[in-house]
């Protein structure tokens, strides 16, 4: 359960990093709101499944995964992805791609390890 305290800080910070990296490319608050919403769903549902209602951990795991999917959708298909693709800055594109892969792979394997 201590991990959730850490994630409550670090996951929204990662969402803010996406916003800040894409701000020069025209990122708006709505994009940040969608990323934060996905992270809250992911973390709260994960915590409920692990610590509050462990007998229903599969259900809460699925709900948590839906929160993760909101984030993945936004960074691979949504507004964030479109802003990064349209950016003329190689620094923006490079930083965005590193973060995007970390979010996809790192967050996908974390529950397994």
The chain-level structural class is: mainly alpha
SSE order: HHHHH
* Count of DSSP H/I helices: 5
User: What's the helical proportion of residues?
Assistant: over 70%
Q: How many strands, which pairing sense, and closed or not: the largest β-sheet?
A: none
User: What's the CATH topology name?
Assistant: Rhopdopsin 7-helix transmembrane proteins
CATH class: Mainly Alpha
Taking pLDDT < 50 over at least 5 consecutive residues as the criterion, the unreliable ranges are: none
- How many DSSP-defined strands? 0
Spatial separation of the terminal alpha carbons:
16 Å
Tell me the name of the CATH homologous superfamily: Rhodopsin 7-helix transmembrane proteins
Estimated radius of gyration: 15 Å
The fraction of residues assigned to DSSP E strands is under 5%
Mean pLDDT: 93
CATH architecture group name = Up-down Bundle
**Integer count of domains:** 1
How would you sum up the global shape? elongated
Protein name: Rhodopsin
Keywords: Membrane, Transmembrane, Transmembrane helix
Subcellular location: Membrane
Transmembrane segments: 6-22, 34-52, 58-77
